């Protein structure tokens, strides 16, 4: 306990492996959410863009409505299908939603000579503080992939000192052990993902370097072919780590799980092409009092498409709402 040994997720028949379960929803699912954009300033004179979407029917007590803060994946944003679909479903379940963007991910380049990384929890704290200042007193955290790592690391860092308004957390497709997950992405069958990340990340670096001459190193960047190489040459150096290994070692959420003090659900599919075997720590799960882990055999990476005909709500969305609403947690 609390390892959930059986999962009720079943994929549609036409998505028979982890790659199809990852790629088809990302390419072909279209979810529209009417967000309200808000920009807030950070303590270091930068900005974060927040997208708000409000519940159809308020279910929280007067002055204390329920809010879910959602953190997207690497190079994602609030309009990715996995996040927008979740927002739509949570709105229908009575939750206001705040989907925030990491620096450089909202469509406008951030101001400082830095970006974001998978161990950066300070910006999440800024977002939480902003929500608290608005009067929210029942807050849940949710993260996808990279955003799941950030969320779990934040919860572990806070431990028992976490603000009492933060009540539960749910994360999906999380690279809990960054070193081995980065190696998994270098496997032959995951090169398509490596290439995609490298293309968008390198484009951002060159864009910022043009805006801030001399402040952003670009030497050797064109030769980078994997996410690990990018993190070694750029992410680690720009954000104060020795190298990629140091960055991964300090930032991996796995080492923070035993310090989490609120009910938290981690859902990682066994056929996720982004995740290594270290991202499925079953023995650890049995020892943790506050962290539930569920490892469906199918689902892909931020996939979890429904099997039913004409069904628009994804299993991950139903699973998350069930966890947030259920007093018995599971």
From TrEMBL:
What keywords would UniProt list here?
Hydrolase, Serine esterase
A GO molecular function annotation here is:
monoacylglycerol lipase activity
**Keyword Hydrolase on entry:** yes
Keyword Hydrolase attached: yes
Family of this protein: Belongs to the AB hydrolase superfamily. AB hydrolase 4 family.
| Pfam families per record | Abhydrolase_1
Instruction: Domain (AB hydrolase-1): give its ranges.
Output: 69-304
Instruction: State the protein's name.
Output: Alpha/beta fold hydrolase
The active-site annotation reads 145, 272, 301
């Amino acid at each position: 306990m609390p390892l959930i040994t059986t999962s009720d997720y079943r994929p549609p028949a036409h998505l028979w492996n982890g790659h199809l379960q990852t790629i088809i929803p990302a390419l072909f699912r279209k979810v529209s959410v009417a967000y309200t954009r808000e920009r807030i300033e950070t303590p270091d004179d930068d900005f974060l863009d927040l997208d708000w979407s409000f519940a159809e029917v308020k279910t929280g007590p007067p002055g204390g409505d329920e809010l879910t803060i959602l953190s997207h994946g690497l190079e994602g944003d609030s309009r990715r299908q996995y996040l927008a679909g979740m927002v739509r479903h949570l709105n229908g379940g009575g939750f206001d939603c705040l989907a925030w963007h990491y620096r450089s991910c909202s469509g406008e380049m951030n101001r400082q000579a830095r970006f974001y990384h998978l161990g950066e929890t300070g910006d999440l704290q800024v977002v939480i503080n902003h929500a608290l200042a608005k009067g929210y007193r029942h807050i849940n955290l949710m993260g996808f992939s990279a955003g799941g790592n950030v969320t779990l690391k934040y919860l572990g860092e806070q431990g028992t000192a976490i603000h009492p308004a933060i009540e539960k957390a749910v994360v999906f497709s999380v690279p809990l052990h960054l070193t081995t997950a980065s190696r998994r992405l270098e496997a032959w069958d995951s090169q398509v993902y490596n290439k995609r990340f490298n293309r968008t990340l390198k484009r951002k670096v060159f864009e910022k370097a043009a805006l801030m001459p001399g402040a952003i190193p670009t030497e050797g960047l064109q030769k980078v072919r994997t996410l690990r190489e990018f993190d070694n040459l750029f992410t680690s150096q720009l954000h104060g780590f020795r190298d990629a290994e140091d960055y991964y070692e300090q930032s991996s959420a796995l080492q923070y799980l035993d310090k989490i003090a609120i009910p938290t659900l981690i859902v990682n599919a066994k056929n996720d092409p982004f995740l290594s075997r270290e991202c499925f720590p079953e023995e650890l799960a049995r020892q943790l009092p506050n962290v539930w882990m569920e490892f469906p055999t199918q689902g892909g990476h931020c996939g979890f498409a429904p099997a039913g005909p004409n069904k628009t709500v994804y299993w991950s969305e139903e699973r998350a709402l069930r966890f947030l609403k259920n007093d018995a947690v599971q």
